[in-house]
Design goal:
With 194 residues, this protein is an alpha/beta fold. It contains 6 helices and 8 strands. It is globular. The structure holds glycinamide ribonucleotide.
Length: 194
Amino acid sequence: MPIKRVAVLFSGSGSNLEALLEKLHNKVFNGTKIEIALTITNKKDAGGIKRSQKFGIEPELIEHKDFDSREEFDEALVRKIKKENIDLTVLAGFMRILTPVFTNQIKAINLHPSLLPLFKGANAIKESFESNEPRAGVTVHWVSEELDSGEIIAQKSFEKEKKMSFEKFKEKIHKIEHEILPETVIKLLCEKMN
Ligand code: GAR
């Protein structure tokens, strides 16, 4: 049976990493098995570390602060990902700007908590909540050299309710993220044409 090897990079709580592990790890879709073969974090106190360990996967710690330049950090990520023969890399709350050293060598997708091209950057949920846009949502896109700007693969949106609290809004965004990211990975790796 074909096996597709996935790497997941994270910096924070890792709820999306956990959704990927729960829904995809060692599971078969259309006759193809998905294996989360590698997890990497750049933060030694990231909540996702425990979530990864819970599934028996010890995350690689590659701390950006140990490198003199973004390029050298990216080179270390690339080396590790290539060594593990990864088919698809997933950025799930990986809060680093990547250089062409990474983007030219690694086939990667990114999860972003807004309807891109709206609200690029690190404060998307708050900016989307506070905006006058009638709808909000989540995007999965290919990673390219320009931040949050690669080709869009999938989006899910919902109508904003005037009375919704910020907490409820965030919850709704995360719930959608936990669905759209695993779904997109399956689509990319296990659909017939692959
Ligand atoms: C997610 O909301 C993800 O969309 C966002 O970080 C969060 C990570 O949550 N990513 C970005 O904002 C990228 N620009 P998690 O650690 O619980 O998965």
